[in-house]
Amino acid sequence: MTRPVLHDYFRSSAAYRVRIALNLKGIDYDSRPVNLAEGAQQAAAYRALNPQGLVPMLEIDDLRLTQSLSIAVYLDQKYPEPMLMPRDPADGAHVRAMALAVACDIHPLNNLRVLKYLKSELGQEQAAIDRWYAHWVVEGLVALEAMAAPRAGAFLFGNAPTLADVCLVPQLYNARRFSVPLDPYPTLRRADEAASALPAFAAAHPDRVAQEEVAK
Ligand SMILES: N[C@@H](CCC(=O)N[C@@H](CS)C(=O)NCC(=O)O)C(=O)O
User: Fold this and answer.
1) Residues lining ligand 1, Cβ inside 6 A
2) How far apart are CA 98 and CA 90, in angstroms?
3) CA 59 to CA 89: how far, in whole Å?
4) CA 122 to centroid of ligand 1, rounded, Å
5) Whole-number mean pLDDT of the chain?
6) pLDDT tens for residues 28-59?
7) CB 21 within 8 A of CB 72
8) Rounded distance, CA 5 to CA 199, Å?
9) pLDDT band at 215 (very low <50, low <70, confident <90, very high)
10) Cβ-based neighbour number of residue 151 at 10 Å
């Protein structure tokens, strides 16, 4: 297969999910940085590739795939081992619910364009924006802790990483960046620690990606 190309940004938690998924599946890829801080996602050339003007975007198997969870599910269907989604429908629904709780109910409210809109269009001070950020993260993590605890093992579901952990680790990285305390979430912290120790997760970490960019 032609080497996949990931349109990526080191601090993007959605792109971080895809880096983890690619690494777990053992798929080598080239990274093409899209500098979100400089607005490169808005450039006409990039929007022609991804009309949403968001990262990640993955070129693979002659396809252009967008939306991190859609990409992860594609990879899981095409390259089934190790599995990201339990094949049992009930277990799969549980894992998908946890992944979606992060990807649909926490992350979009705190995305760069939303925080920028609060500041530039609605004139909010940084303190109010930080409160907004913390409010939605805390509400989301409280719920995720309660969802995960009954069926968690070392990871959010059982003793191997799933799509739920692929979403959790970037979200907690983000929460730490914004100094959100994580003490109230023992199940989430345990899964984060177990996952972060795996090479697939460690290699996808924003610090590692940034270092590799500098080294190029
Ligand atoms: N639901 C999308 C979210 C993608 C997304 O929001 N990406 C962010 C970075 S994490 C982005 O490109 N933001 C650019 C901007 O806000 O202008 C996914 O999961 O792929």
Assistant:
1) 12-14, 36, 41, 54-56, 67-69, 103, 111-113
2) 13
3) 29
4) 21
5) 95
6) 999 999 999 999 999 999 999 999 999 999 99
7) yes
8) 20
9) low
10) 14
The pLDDT tens digits of the residues spanning 96-110 come to 999 999 999 999 999
- Residue 203 tokens, joined: 């290699």
Instruction: Report DSSP letters for 9-69, one per residue.
Output: -TT-HHHHHHHHHHHHTT---EEEE--GGGTGGGSHHHHHH-TT--S-EEEETTEEEESHH
Report the residue among 55, 102, 121 best suited for mutation to probe ligand 1: largest number of ligand atoms under 8 A from its CB: 55
Instruction: Give the number of the atom of ligand 1 that is nearest the alpha carbon of residue 108.
Output: 6
User: Residues 107-143: pLDDT tens digits?
Assistant: 999 999 999 999 999 999 999 999 999 999 999 999 9
